Amino acid sequence: MSKSTSDHFESLEGGHNFAQNDAQKSNPIESSELIANSPLAKKVLRKIDIMVIPFICITYLVTYIDKAMLGYSAVFGLKDSLDLHGSQYSWLGSMFYFGYLAFEYPTTFAMQKIPVSKWLSINLFVWGGITMALAGCNGFDSFLGLRFLLGALESCSTPAYLLITATWYTVEEQPIRIGWWSTFLGVANSFGGLLAFSVGHIKGALEPWQYQFIVIGALSSIWAIFMFFTLAERPETAPWLNQEERIVATRRLGPRHHGANHREIKKYQLIEAATDPKTWLFFLCGVATQVVNGAASNFGSLIISGFGYSNLVTTLFQIPYGMVILVSNVSAMYIQRWLPGQMRCLVAVAYVCPALAGAVGIHTISRDHKVALLVCYWLTSTYTASFAMIMSLITANTGGSTKRSAVNGIFFISYCVGNIIGPFSFKESEAPKYTSGIIAMLVAYCVEIFLLFTFAFYASMLNRKKESAIERDRTSLQDVALQSMDATLADQTDQEDPFFRYSY
Question: Is residue 127 part of a domain?
């Protein structure tokens, strides 16, 4: 975990805390530790949890359901309606992420110039309209083009969630909050399955899959309008906080908070992001996790129907899949909170292992054992907890506003790459077993485990180097401490800040 500057100097100087004492003399409220532990700060934190996190959760819900809806639509006549053949269905799944990939960097840097909450709301509103337009498609080409546009619009979503979380919460608080909104991946799967089951009973002029896109698109646009006028951009401007609460909401984050909103794009931070080994470890982790996601979101329903279940029963069996995601994410975020030093990499690995076992089961168990295969499929969803841990590792281990934006952008390029690869590993000729796709999932799980252990080793090594550097130079300790307390104003990166400590 990252320690505060004052904590480091207290341990080095036998308990004398230069920075904190000086801050308290000039202004008692500058002591972020005292503020964070005050009753008012706890009240403010509860308000933030109530007024910020639900917006991310619901937005995450409605945007993810689109990806799940493509899978449900496949068992409700989409392929026949669009006359899909060969690899065309896989292209529909992957094209979304080509759009995501094409607009990832432009939208990431747009959010450094434009209020994140407003940018997210506008994109979601248009996204809802295009989702409804999918219901009017009668051929592969038009559906493919709209899927590209959907990906382009959704490219701002998860980076926006991370930026909003980093703006409102301390490094120590962020994993829990990321875990909270990540659990809505499970809610989305369960709600999407229930919605698909309900819509599947509609008898009207349209096909069942068309009603699904109309409903979720309309809900998305309505929610976007509400969010545009309600979600606050940062603590200083939150209308639901009074003046005193705004001061506390800002000061409790501490002077070393790395979620500050710096508008300037700094070239040296871009270079540092591109040359930092951590960036590329995150990149590879993103590819590994999203190969599985791309497979599950587009072929999950087809995998279940391949076990021998009907269309309507298949949609219902996605509900337990979502509940496993929900339980996995919630339990993972609290386990890492309780463990000494949080041990996020170890917790992530622990949740990849059941998913690995589930994929092995799907690959090896006879098709005569339908229930066993179904349970193995549900187990494959536990990997989602590791993705939440990886996102929290990025926010906790990246300093500097421009560097953070760049690292987020690179990570979500990997998000796209993995989701593009995933659907193509499932070959129509191998249905219903999809041997190549299941093997791809197995390989992805193993690679992710290796990468998480590698990151933990590397972060530990970097922390030891920083501690050694401090031990070597104590001559200007007090000056360095006081300068470091202004790290946010200086917008230092994690490499620049000698007192930044990496979490793993």
Answer: yes
Name the DSSP letter for residue 31. -
- Does residue 280 lie in a domain region? yes
What is the model's pLDDT at position 23?
Answer: 38
Please give the Cα distance from 73 to 125 (Å, whole number).
22
Could you report the average pLDDT of every consecutive run of 10 residues in the chain (504 residues)?
Answer: 37 33 41 64 91 92 78 78 83 88 82 88 94 90 93 88 87 78 79 76 80 88 94 90 89 63 75 94 92 78 80 80 87 82 87 93 88 91 88 85 84 86 82 85 93 94 87 59 50 83 87
Res 18: pLDDT: 31
Number of structural domains the chain divides into: 1
Q: What is the spatial distance between Cα 329 and Cα 504, in angstroms, rounded to a whole number?
A: 17
Measured between alpha carbons, how far is 375 from 372 in angstroms, rounded to an integer?
A: 5
The per-residue b/e assignment along 53-89, b for 16 or more CB within 10 angstroms, e otherwise, is bebbbbbbbbbbbbbbbbbbbbbbebbebbebeeebb
Residue 16 CB-density burial (10 A; 0-12 exposed, 13-18 middle, 19+ buried): exposed
Q: Is 7 inside a domain boundary?
A: no
Neighbours of 355 (CB within 10 A): 28
Q: What is the pLDDT of residue 39?
A: 83
Q: Which two tokens stand for residue 7?
A: 């904590």
CA–CA separation, 239 and 225 (whole Å): 18
CATH assignment at residue 419 = 1.20.1250.20
Q: Per the structure block, which two tokens stand in for 485?
A: 């307390």
Q: What is the pLDDT of residue 143?
A: 92
**pLDDT, position 194:** 78
Say how far apart CA 466 and CA 340 lie, in whole Å. 21
Domain that holds residue 330: 39-232+269-482
Unique residue bearing structure tokens 């065309």: 88
Torsions phi, psi for 83 (to 5 deg): 55, 50
Q: Which residues of 462-503 form beta strands (DSSP E)? A: none
**Continuous H helices in 114-266:** 116-134, 140-154, 157-168, 174-182, 184-199, 208-230, 243-251
Residue linked to tokens 């009074």: 242
Cα distances from 203 to residues 7, 36, 165, 206, in angstroms, run: 66, 56, 43, 8
The DSSP line for 159-174 is: HHHHHHHHHHS-TTTH
Query: Quick one: 113 exposed, middle or buried, by C-beta within 10 A (0-12, 13-18, 19+)?
Result: exposed
Specify the pLDDT at position 263. 59
Would residue 248 count as lying in a domain?
no
